[in-house]
Amino acid sequence: xxxxxxxxxxVDYLYNETPLLKTVVVQNTIDNNEEVKEIYQxxxxxxxxxxxxxxxxxxxxxxxxxxxxxxxxxx
Length: 75
Prior knowledge:
This protein is mostly helical. Helices cover about 70% and strands about 0% of the residues. It has one domain.
């Protein structure tokens, strides 16, 4: 990837961790470089898939944990 930003810059940008000036550079690179745009879109898709794959415990388990906490909590 030959551009003004690195893969690390794209990751930082994805998670809104770039300083303002670097944000402008990365966004400009994404807008003007098809290869970088495709890489960034893949990163967004992967990030979304990871977010959607997080598993929540079933409600009966949460209730069991809360009941245990109530029983064992100091008064």
